[in-house]
Amino acid sequence: MQTLTSYVGGRWVTGEGPWTDLTDPTTEEVIARASTGGVDFGAAVRHARAAGPALRALTFAERGALLEKAAKAIHAVREELLDLAIANGGNTRSDAKFDVDGATGTLMHYAELGRALGGRRVLLEGEPSNIGRSGRLQGQHVLAPRHGVAIAINAFNFPCWGLAEKAACAWLAGVPVIGKPATATALVTWRMVQAVVEAGALPEGALGLISGGVGDLFDHLTWRDVVAFTGSADTARRIRGHARILENGVAVNVEADSLNAAVLAPGAEDATYDAFIRDAHKEITQKAGQKCTATRRIFVPRDRLDDVIADLGERLGTTIVGDPRRDEVGMGPLATKEQLRSAREGVEALGGEARVVWGQPAAKQDRGYFFGPLLLRADDPHGATRVHELEVFGPVSTLMPYDGTAADAASLVQRGDGSLVASIYGDDREFLAAAIVEMAGWHGRLVVTDEKIADKAIAPGTVLPNLLHGGPGRAGGGTELGGLIGLGPYVQRCAVQGNGPLIAKLLGA
Ligand code: NAP
């Protein structure tokens, strides 16, 4: 059995227990263990902060080159990481690629942004503004790196990409990172960090790893640091409410859960309808529905609900559920026993408002954490509450009718109280325009699919490095990715005023 170590203070440290077991969710076999008992979190934070000057001294182009090295180091162990994601996460190979290649792709995207920014060390925000009568007296807003450390806490579902997408933004901004993956699937992150450290891709201290609980880590943070958190809304609340975080004004960027919705517009036929069914199927089955961006609620004009259930059910029936090591399998188990329990309880809790219309909660396999896929139907979405509030983190979506107007669809979508993403499938331009206006303020991303792009459209659950990831309200209000927008949590805005031309020169404008 593998014992995971933490990379802190420039060395690999073995915990002293108590131990948390990591399992293979297909076989229920324990394959590794992790503990941070005995780890000196204060020293870990100080060591990471000490890498700040080296990162800040680099230009964006040079930081970009580091990201490229890190991406190459990860890619070099790609096959190993895919195997670990299959073993420790129950991922199919395709799910695992989504995570691992997503990590290298995101790092490469930010490497390219660094290259394009060239010789500067801080970001310029907007144009200089005149503050006196002579044009010489000017002010320029800049975004400068925080002089602290970024604590990147991630959920179990993306052990590779989750750390890479946070680290890419922090490193490009000039801030060192300590990664803290969810313990249950930390085997993948552990190997990924090992590969980056072994390749000497970064200045020492720019990357640390905590394999296990956070101990008293937060007691060592100040306003100069930032906690970038991805996980459930409950954990986010606990972190935000931590006494030290509040006392010291530690910045917290939250990517939490979400009741993402898809809307089928009236009159959507042929290619648009096919894309709607194709994407709904993907969002339910990819990573066994364990994606924060997966579609949880599907709104359909009342007169089309039965057809959609039949068509989506038929499509779901083509997915083989089983051991993700087998090529023909399209969906593996849930990642942990706890996730299985939580998904079962979730479907039960929705029971008063929604009933299963396709699939069976009971697994056919005699071992492993298998569940679903399941389609639920709720006929009174306006009267329902739980279907809009309870995230069943698995291959489960609830279909609901609406009256065919954009206003009704938007009012139901908004019952999710702020989401990462919503998708609209339709060709009626009036409907689409009204839906976009009504829904954009409640989401980090809207995916609009019409017949012209239906065959090329990217399913709504796919997060792209050049577009914003993060949503308002329940989704946590965080900001990740979106190109340079993603550097936001790791920089401080400062207005530099004085001799305009000189300041421009000094900043490399
Ligand atoms: P979770 O239980 O909230 O855990 C998330 C992370 O927080 C893990 O690394 C966990 O570590 C850590 N953690 C737990 N308690 C903590 C505490 N008191 N202080 C500091 N860290 C703590 O979430 P999960 O079960 O891993 O992931 C599923 C949830 O994440 C879903 O609700 C999903 O919607 C959400 N999610 C959101 C996004 C997004 O981008 N918005 C992406 C993926 C997932 P341990 O594992 O060691 O407990």
Output the CATH homologous superfamily of the largest domain. Aldehyde Dehydrogenase, Chain A, domain 1
Instruction: Bin the helical content.
Output: 25-40%
CATH topology value of the largest domain: Aldehyde Dehydrogenase, Chain A, domain 1
Q: Quickly give the CATH architecture of the largest domain.
A: 3-Layer(aba) Sandwich
Strand order of the largest sheet: 14-15-16-13-12-17-18
**How many strands in all?**
21
What is the average of the pLDDT values?
97
Rg (CA only): 23 Å
Question: What fraction of the residues are assigned to beta strands by DSSP?
Answer: 15-25%
Could you characterize the architecture of this molecule?
The chain has a 7-stranded mixed sheet with strand order 14-15-16-13-12-17-18, sandwiched between helices. A 5-stranded parallel sheet has the order 9-8-7-10-11, with helices on both faces. Helix content is 36%, strand content 22%. Helix 15 links the parallel strand 17 and strand 18. The model has no long low-confidence stretch (mean pLDDT 97). Helix 3 (60-76) runs antiparallel to helix 5 (93-117) and helix 5 (93-117) packs parallel to helix 6 (161-173). With 509 residues, the chain is α/β, with parallel strands linked by helices. The chain contains 16 helices and 21 strands. The chain is globular. The chain folds into 2 domains: 41-256 and 478-506, Aldehyde Dehydrogenase, Chain A, domain 1 (3-Layer(aba) Sandwich), CATH 3.40.605.10; 260-465, Aldehyde Dehydrogenase, Chain A, domain 2, CATH 3.40.309. The structure holds NADP nicotinamide-adenine-dinucleotide phosphate. The site of NADP nicotinamide-adenine-dinucleotide phosphate has 25 residues, from helix 8. Residues 153-157, 180-184, 213-214, 230-232, 235, 238-239, 255-257, 292, 391, 393, 420 line the site of NADP nicotinamide-adenine-dinucleotide phosphate (NAP).
